[in-house]
């Protein structure tokens, strides 16, 4: 969710110094297809009218890019408007990856040309805010690497369950000199506490499913073989209850817990401001200090702050170096992204 600008400023700057074949053939980068209809990266299955599954399927790394935004928007819109759906489970079809970072290759215009959503926020923060507030319950089943937009989608969902052996969770952006733009500074401290949120946001390190459970990031970490049956059974149980009661309970829980539009916008603005400050770390820390739940404005602020930080020469150079190492092309780089971002500081 994070690279409107990274797409343009970095790929324009970074591509020039990367592989000439990549620069001349953007259609071969993951997720990009010149002249072709957008690939269906998100599949919606109605298990029953009340219980839906959403499968994230953009191999090899489950990147999230401008083509994915309208597909997620379609799912959220249907969750808001369908009178029968009660619970929606998000899962991945890509081995080793639940959902990762924003695709750095498409041009900036591919993202900025998408109009704001119904909340007035940019399209991706809008989708995530509306997902949280939808009358249907959202559950993520985390198996594989979850970072960037993957973490932000997870935090915006109502419940999170993880594979004990296979879940790997992080917010990687600090390693590239970026401020996350999809709301983790607004949501994470309220979920796991200020100190642990800062630990994840300021180190970019991975946490396992077990540690995520101890931190309170996920509801439960389960043995991998038990994850799907457990989530399915819970979803079917919820789907059997009264929708009006489900929506009312969600709405009342949302009041003291969900971020406001103002908070979300504040984060977005802080993201933009971080481009003009020496250290993105200070931007993250300031946003985590906000004592109340994030508003749409705060989430919007993160989005803006991410875009702004992407203009910084340091961030452009970091992303260029990461792409030279194999970001978006080599599985080892995607699986061990914290290690590779750590080498940038050496």
Which of globular, elongated, flat, extended, rod-shaped describes the shape?
Answer: globular
Estimate percent helicity.
Answer: 40-55%
* Spans where pLDDT lies below 50 across 5 or more residues: 1-33
* Order of helical and strand elements: HHEEHEEHHEHEHHEHEHHHHHHHH
How would you state the average pLDDT, rounded? 83
What structural class do helix, strand and pairing data support? alpha/beta
Put simply, the count of helices is: 17
Walk me through this protein's architecture.
The protein is an alpha/beta fold. The chain is 51% helix and 13% strand. Strands 1, 2, 3, 4, 5, 6, 7 and 8 form an 8-stranded mixed sheet that branches. Helix 3 (68-81) links the parallel strand 2 and strand 3 (87-92). The two termini are 27 Å apart.
Layout of strands and helices, then pairs:
Elements: H1 4-15, H2 20-24, E1 42-46, E2 51-56, H3 68-81, E3 87-92, E4 97-99, H4 108-112, H5 123-133, E5 137-146, H6 149-156, E6 159-169, H7 184-192, H8 194-203, E7 207-208, H9 209-215, E8 220-222, H10 224-239, H11 243-257, H12 261-274, H13 280-288, H14 296-310, H15 313-325, H16 331-335, H17 337-343
Parallel strand pairs: 2-3, 3-5, 4-5, 5-6, 6-8
Antiparallel strand pairs: 1-2, 6-7
Helix pairs in contact: 1-14, 1-15, 3-5, 6-7, 7-8, 7-13, 8-13, 12-13, 12-14
Question: What descriptive keywords fit this protein?
Answer:
346 residues, alpha/beta, 8-stranded mixed beta sheet, globular, disordered N terminus
């Amino acid at each position: 969710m994070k690279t409107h600008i990274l797409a343009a400023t970095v790929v324009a700057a970074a591509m020039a110094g990367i592989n000439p074949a990549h620069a001349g053939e953007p259609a071969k980068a993951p997720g990009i297809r010149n002249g072709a209809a957008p690939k269906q990266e998100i599949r919606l299955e109605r298990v029953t009218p009340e219980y839906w599954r959403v499968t994230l399927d953009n191999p090899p790394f489950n990147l999230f890019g401008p083509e994915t935004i309208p597909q997620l928007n379609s799912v959220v819109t249907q969750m808001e408007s369908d009178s029968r759906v009660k619970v929606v489970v998000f899962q991945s079809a890509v081995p080793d990856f639940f959902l990762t970072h924003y695709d750095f290759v498409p041009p900036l215009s591919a993202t900025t040309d998408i109009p704001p959503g119904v909340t007035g926020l940019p399209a991706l923060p809008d989708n995530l805010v509306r997902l949280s507030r939808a009358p249907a319950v959202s559950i993520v089943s985390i198996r594989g690497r979850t970072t960037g937009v993957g973490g932000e989608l997870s935090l915006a969902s109502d419940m999170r369950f993880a594979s004990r052996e296979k879940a790997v969770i992080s917010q990687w952006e600090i390693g590239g000199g970026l401020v996350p733009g999809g709301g983790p500074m607004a949501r994470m401290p309220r979920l796991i506490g200020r100190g642990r949120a800062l630990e994840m946001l300021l180190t970019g390190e991975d946490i396992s499913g077990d540690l995520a459970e101890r931190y309170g990031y996920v509801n439960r970490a389960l043995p991998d073989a038990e994850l799907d049956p457990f989530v399915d059974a819970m979803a079917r149980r919820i789907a059997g209850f009264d929708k009006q009661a489900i929506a009312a309970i969600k709405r009342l829980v949302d009041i003291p817990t969900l971020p406001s539009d103002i908070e979300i916008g504040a984060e977005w603005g802080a993201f933009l401001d971080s481009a003009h400050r020496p250290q993105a770390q200070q931007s993250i820390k300031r946003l985590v200090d906000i004592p109340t739940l994030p508003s749409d404005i705060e989430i919007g602020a993160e989005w803006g702050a991410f875009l702004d930080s992407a203009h910084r020469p340091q961030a452009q150079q970091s992303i260029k170096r990461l792409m030279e190492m194999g970001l978006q092309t080599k599985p080892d780089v995607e699986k061990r992204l914290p290690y590779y971002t750590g080498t940038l500081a050496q």
